[in-house]
Amino acid sequence: MAASRRFTEQQLAGVKIAPQPGCSWINLYQVGQSEAVFNALTEDLRAYVTARHEGHSQAYLITALTNRLSLSALTDPDLRILATNVPLLAVSWARKTDSGTSTNRAGELVSQTTTLTFVNGQQVTNVTSEIPKADEVCRWVSFTVTDGEIAWNYFMRFKASGAFKYLHSSKCDARDVDPRYKPIMAEVAKEVEAQMKREGSAGQLGSCHAFWDFKKAKLKAKGIDWRSPSELNPGTNYD
Predict the structure, then answer these.
(1) What is the rounded distance in angstroms from the CA atom of residue 178 to the CA atom of residue 172?
(2) Cα separation of 60 and 68, whole Å?
(3) pLDDT tens, position by position, 60-87
(4) What is the pLDDT of residue 192?
(5) Could you give the maximum distance between any two Cα atoms of the chain, in Å?
């Protein structure tokens, strides 16, 4: 991490890293005057630990650290935005998978944000609605990063002006985006869809979970241990 930041030995002398006795924690201490070095390494350590908990391999993160590029060196503006918003992104592993546009219709609710504030000790709820006055054509783009048995999908949406709006990320089984598994995945999906139509469970609220359960069982019968989006994204609700 220090090498990727190009810190000198003199700068590193101002920080110390040590394990927490009796547990698996590690602590970073500032023992010198340089807060910049301490803050930078704190940011990298937190990003590294978070990424490892999310399933990224050590090899991937070492690549992200040792090949940290200047944002100005990235010729793809979309990749530049992705690298800006994803800590420790191994840029060379990112693959642009799709792009397109969507239209926000005039007068229709596009998004709604609720915030809670306290005024004079009282909780106040503020609701902000985004309703365009004219049709807006907005661009979107997606990237995929495959690391071992997991693939990270990054979906970026832009405003009608072209400015970046938000980034959504999710994980899926790497086989879902592996060209080698495309035929068998398509075959199993077709079988599951036909089965659910026969049973009358297709298209119902929550039917995606039944679809994934059937898919998992059919792939297991073929010797493939597949994980569903709900397994890989436990904090996300699917219906």
Answers:
(1) 11
(2) 12
(3) 999 998 887 777 788 899 999 999 999 8
(4) 95
(5) 71
φ, ψ of residue 231 in degrees (nearest 5): -75, -35
Instruction: Identify the residue whose tokens are 């070492």.
Output: 62
Question: Environment class of residue 56 by beta-carbon count within 10 Å: exposed (0-12), middle (13-18) or buried (19+)?
Answer: buried
pTM of the complete model: 0.84
Selected residue with higher pLDDT from 71 and 108: 108
Asked if pLDDT for residue 59 goes beyond 90, the answer is: yes
